[in-house]
Amino acid sequence: MHKKGKIYFVEVLLGRDSLKILQKGFNYSQDGPGNRLVYHLQGCNFSCKWCSNADSIPLENSKAKDYSVDEIFDEIMRSRMMFFDGGGVTFTGGEVCVQADELLELLKMLKENGIHTAIETNGSYSALKEISEHVDYLIVDLKHYDETEHKKWVGTSNKSTKENIEYFFSTGRQIHIRIPVINGVNNDPRGFADYFSRFDTSNVVFEFLAYHEYGKDKWQGKYEIENGFVNSETINEFKKIFENHGMKTVVT
Ligand code: SF4
What domain count does the chain have? Predict the structure, then answer.
């Protein structure tokens, strides 16, 4: 459904004044600094074959709930005592920009009230530029630097993601690039490093996330990745090659 779902998403989301949330909870320093209240938004325009939140991909999911922007805002404000160590709120997915208008409205309210905000995004929506202006900590995933491989494993082109990433590089804003490293898919760091080294990445940190299978059961037998695990040597190789290119790496 989501492969040809852009029009579907737009039609469904017009006129909404609420956000569809699949799950929420606190984590520490995994998706932005400090202790954070993390919301997983329903719906994604990608279909990564290793997605650990496959139930977050379709827009409609009986487990997801609609919350008005005001309801979420109130919940966040009530939770602010928990945002220690520079924490705050993070929106992830699914893909957060599927619900761009409502997210933007909420982010503006949070910024006006001094809440530290973060998003994790697949980077593919043009709305991301405006959204990012109201975000303190921006995490953008790049699944593959090569367009053909990206289409093969994710189902869509990587062009718009790269355009957005290059836009952020050109503005010099702080950005956190997250690369999921999967054996047989994208476990050669040189192509990534060659691509990123063309830009000024002085305000960028790179994270390499080793493949896991925590969400495999959600695929209900349709999971296609085989032998996707990478060892610590592969992750260290990514770090070494990026750092040899003068790029900063981070572990969360
Ligand atoms: S972008 Fe994220 S949520 Fe969307 S399919 Fe890929 S891994 Fe899943």
Answer: 1
Instruction: Supply the CATH number for residue 213's domain.
Output: 3.20.20.70
Average pLDDT for runs of 10 along the chain of length 252 = 34 64 97 98 98 95 97 98 98 97 97 98 98 98 98 98 98 98 97 98 98 93 95 97 98 84
Task: Indicate whether residue 51 lines ligand 1 (CB < 6 A).
Answer: yes
Is pTM, for the whole model, over 0.90? yes
Domain of 130? 2-250
Measured from the CB, is residue 93 less than 6 Å from ligand 1? yes
DSSP-derived letter for residue 80 is G
Residue position matching structure tokens 């329903």: 42
CA–CA separation, 6 vs 12, rounded Å? 10
Q: What is the rounded distance in angstroms from the CA atom of residue 162 to the CA atom of residue 169?
A: 10
